[in-house]
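Internal tracking record. Fields below are filled automatically when a chain is submitted to the structure queue. Please do not edit lines marked as system-generated. If the sequence contains nonstandard residues, flag them in the REMARKS field before resubmitting.
Queue: standard
Priority: normal
Entity type: single polypeptide chain
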Amino acid sequence: MKDVEVFAYCRERLQALCPGLTSELVEELSLGWRILRLDKREHLAEAGRIHDEAFLIIEGLVRAYYPDVEGDVTVNFIAEGEFATHYTSLEAPRPSHFAFQTLEPTVAVAFSYEYVYQLSLRRWEMERLLRVLLEHEYTRLLEHTECLLMRSGEERYRLFVQTFGALMPRISVSDLSSYLGVSRQNLTLIRKRLLGE
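SYSTEM-GENERATED OUTPUT FOLLOWS
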């Protein structure tokens, strides 16, 4: 994908997320963008560091995870058209517990937090866009947390297939089992049982 196509997709996606966004604001916002092209298993941002950018995924798939002594714990999958970022980094610069790693070759547009913050001081529409993005992420996070707390492993798997089925061929069993909060063995048993229905 050529740079001009990447920026065009980025503009379209922002206006789809926040329909009232003016083209002037999008153009001003685009002055702070940069394009990243990464191979499989590269990091957009690492845990334990201060994240100073958000990434709109143009092509590819990214997982958010936190490192644990027993193995990485996947907390989200970010596909095309979604943002990979730890939104609390917008509030105050502090090290993030989360890392963002590509699961396949990925093209992303990076947004500098500092540039976005400065723009939001001058343009009220920028605050609206940030609010929409934050609401979207917090809703997703709350739904995933409730699912982990209130549903069985099989129910979590069924819900994932129903909601994100198109991502299944792109995700490893290890990453999916970590996201669902079940062991690889249990996930294999769940899948076999559901195939037998």
